[in-house]
Design goal:
mainly beta, 4-stranded antiparallel beta sheet
Length: 110
Amino acid sequence: PGDVEAWPRWELSGPIKAFDFVGPEGQSFGVAAGTDNVDVVPAGRTLTIDTRPGYKTVRDDQGTNYWPLLKPQPELWSIPDGDSTCTVSITPGAPSALVRLVFQPRYEGY
């Protein structure tokens, strides 16, 4: 939606063991599952991935920085104008795991 690219915020509520996001042009970011089967985002915690220029943060609700856990060369991509498709994959630790997309459509003005 919109006339200009928009920058999403993703909210991941645990328990989540791994996740991958792939944008409309193939850009991606994510966290791989650990070998110890531990939740990356624990139950009761929310991880926010803010892709907006000037922010570009990956932090949970307690302020923990998850950036070092991202796979190599992460690209926090924008949502292009018009219709687009992305792929969201999570490995939930329980059925209560949740992913939420928040963004403000942007329009060209006069």
